[in-house]
Specification:
Layout lengths: L11 H16 L1 H10 L6 H25 L13 H12 L10 E4 L11 E4 L2 H19 L15 E3 L2 E3 L2 H21 L32
Antiparallel strand pairs: 1-2, 3-4
Helix pairs in contact: 1-3, 1-6, 2-3, 3-5, 3-6
Protein name: RiboL-PSP-HEPN domain-containing protein
């Protein structure tokens, strides 16, 4: 579906969700290019800056997506990327149950053996998703407010161990991109849409990144 394409015959809430998803998809093309560029830059502070920048440019559209979908005239405060708060607002405004027990997301995390490389994993419980998004929010907050990103929480085990705490590798940024798309797609489904209604940008994948990803748990519609 093209950005801005009119949705004919769809209920108004779904139209708003699809419009927000289209805007998010367009915004994610920039961090996708940064992920691709990161692989071409020699290890350095420049490469590190690309990684953090790509992460922030994924977090922003994902958070904005939910704030657009769950906009309320009664409250102008920004909703944090918190599954419980998002679920409560969706139930209050639309009687739609987001982040339910059938939801899952795919991402990349450190190897259990402690190696630098990683494979795709599936977070498939409400607790796992809550912890993962909590760690992503902690990392975003540290980066956005001039703090040390190595001080972010890692209750989900999704960050890499470094000398000063925890860090996110390029693999984790690529995983967060996929997780963001998975969550937005499941939101579309929860509002009555179906998979493939939005085309998500994908970075160039090779090696372990190109391995088949786990299958998401079935939500409602194919």
């Amino acid at each position: 579906m093209n950005v801005g394409e009119e949705i004919q015959g769809q209920p108004e809430p779904l139209e708003a969700v699809l419009a927000a998803a289209s805007r998010a998809s367009a915004s994610l093309t920039i961090p996708v290019r940064m992920i691709d560029l990161h692989r071409e830059v020699a290890p350095s502070r420049r490469q590190q800056a690309l990684r953090w920048g790509a992460f922030l440019l994924i977090y922003g559209p994902l958070e904005r997506f939910y704030n657009e979908v769950l906009e309320s005239k009664e409250s102008t405060r920004t909703l944090p990327l918190n599954p419980d708060k998002l679920r409560d607002r969706a139930l209050e405004l639309h009687q739609v149950h987001l982040f339910n027990s059938k939801w899952s997301l795919r991402t990349r995390v450190p190897s259990p053996q402690g190696w630098g490389r990683s494979r795709w994993v599936l977070y498939e419980s409400t607790t796992q998703i809550r912890r993962y998004l909590g760690d992503m929010k902690s990392l975003r907050d540290h980066l956005s407010h001039g703090g040390d990103p190595c001080s972010a929480t890692n209750t989900s085990g999704s960050l890499w161990k470094v000398k000063d705490g925890w860090s996110m590798r390029l693999m984790g940024v690529e995983g967060f991109l996929q997780a963001a798309c998975d969550l937005m797609e499941q939101t579309i489904i929860a509002f009555g849409g179906s998979r493939q209604m939005i085309e998500w940008p994908v970075p160039v994948r090779s090696g372990l990144s190109a391995e088949p990803m786990p299958v998401l748990r079935r939500s409602t519609r194919l």
